[in-house]
Design goal:
Layout lengths: L8 H37 L4 H25 L1
C-alpha cells in the first residue's frame, strides 16, 4: 500500500496566508524605511522635501525588487 499522504487543505491555506503576510510586511517595511530615512536626512541637512522624495522612491523600488526575488524563490 503506497503512502499517498496529502496535506489537508488547512495547511495550504496557512501557507498561502504566510506568503501573503510576508509580502505585505516586506512592502510596508521597505517603504516605511525609505520614508523615515528621507525624512531624517531632510531634517538633518535642511533639504526638505527632496531627500524624502528620493528615499520614498527608493523604498518603493526596494519593495518591487523584494517581490520579484520572493517570486523567484517560491517558483
Amino acid at each position: 500500500m503506497p503512502n499517498d499522504h496529502k496535506p489537508p487543505k488547512q495547511n495550504e491555506f496557512a501557507r498561502a496566508l504566510s506568503f501573503f503576510l510576508q509580502i505585505s510586511v516586506t512592502i510596508i517595511a521597505c517603504i516605511a524605511v525609505g520614508i523615515f530615512l528621507g525624512w531624517l536626512l531632510d531634517r538633518l541637512l535642511g533639504t526638505t522635501p527632496w531627500l524624502l522624495l528620493v528615499f520614498s522612491f527608493m523604498g518603493v523600488g526596494a519593495a518591487f525588487k523584494s517581490i520579484f526575488d520572493f517570486a523567484k524563490k517560491v517558483k
